[in-house]
Amino acid sequence: MSSNTLSPADQKTLAELLAQVQLNTTNFMGYPVSKDFDFMELIPFLNYPMNNLGDPFVPCTYAVGSREMEKEVISFFASLFRAEADDWWGYVTNGGSEGNLYGLYLARELHPKGMVYYSEATHYSVQKNIHLLNMPNIVISTQENGEINYEDLEDTIRMNRHMPVIIMANIGTTMTEARDDIGKIKAILKKLAIKNHYIHADGALSGSYSAFIEPRPAFDFADGADSIAISGHKFFGSPMPCGVVVAKKSNRDRIARSVAYIGSVDTTITGSRNGHSPLFLWYTLKKYGVEGLRKRALHSLAIAQYAEEKLQEIGVAAWRNPNTITVNFPSPSASIRQKWQLASENGGSHIICMPNVQKEQIDQLVAEMAAELIVA
Ligand SMILES: *Cc1c(COP(=O)(O)O)cnc(C)c1O
Q1: Is 95 near ligand 1, meaning CB less than 6 Å away?
Q2: What is 44-285's CATH number, 2.60.40.10, 3.40.50.300, 3.90.550.10, 3.40.640.10?
Q3: Whether the Cβ atoms of residue 145 and residue 134 lie closer than 8 Å to each other
Q4: Distances 89 to 38, 43, 157, 188 between C-alpha atoms, Å
Q5: I need a surface site. Which of 201, 216, 310, 327 has the fewest CB within 10 A?
Q6: Neighbours of 359 (CB within 10 A)
Q7: Is there an atom of ligand 1 within 6 Å of 204 CB?
């Protein structure tokens, strides 16, 4: 017999989890997740089984969802990423990884005999996805800053000139936020006279705000990308992981398959799809607008510059790729890394100055690192 309420013990567990989440959210600068959101207005929607199954642009028999908002979100990003007016399509994903998987999937359907090239700084999920899709691939070395080594890319493609080229370009690598330049990649393809190619841009963090900065990095459709994936919970901020993938409609049409059961077209990776996340993204885009988002990006860039300077002032070898919000430095002690949840790799750590980060947090971290330098 169940009373349909939580037992006191379970309520306590729940309350403890909430306290822990709240605490761990305060000191948090190592991962690219925005925390400055307030979605209270959307709470009533949590009482409904929202599901956007199928293709957002094709109506579905299941009608409890947020398709109209999802289409607006995709349309917003298609124009931000300078897609051709009548040749864009996309959907709200469960995160950047799914968007990257989708880009690779489209590329493989278009070029079944293609070779995938990606740099060694590529996100760990990409390798797994290439494995899932069983695509031949070659890892390209990176420059010191984490950007792809264009010479290595050119030499490697030259050796495999008989195969179509599929490139997974990083628009902001996970560790140093280095951007691969799609203009330079296109120039290599042109120089080697490669006719069959596909470029997917992994813009998980940086792709979300690159359109707002000057000079504009070469990362979007007008620069030569065939598809772009971003994360929704990073720069924009969302309580649940989500993302957006935008691709060329003409390419998506080649894989579309109509499914009678849902009365829509099965063009997405999963069957059921989160009906809430498009609503949360739509809400954020409407609240900020392009100008508000630009302000958020400029705030983050200014804080990152401040952090870089403050760390250098205390003798820490901090550095940053141009126009990025990730500040890299030699890893501090384990206790500082743990407190601020700093990801570390090969002796290096970073902070990511997401829009919620303010000077006060930087000052605090810098003071803690300075104290450690004195003791050492
Ligand atoms: C975060 C990230 C991903 C993965 O995105 P999720 O939204 O976590 O699935 C992929 N690539 C890069 C460069 C990332 O920073």
Answers
A1: yes
A2: 3.40.640.10
A3: no
A4: 29, 29, 29, 27
A5: 216
A6: 12
A7: yes
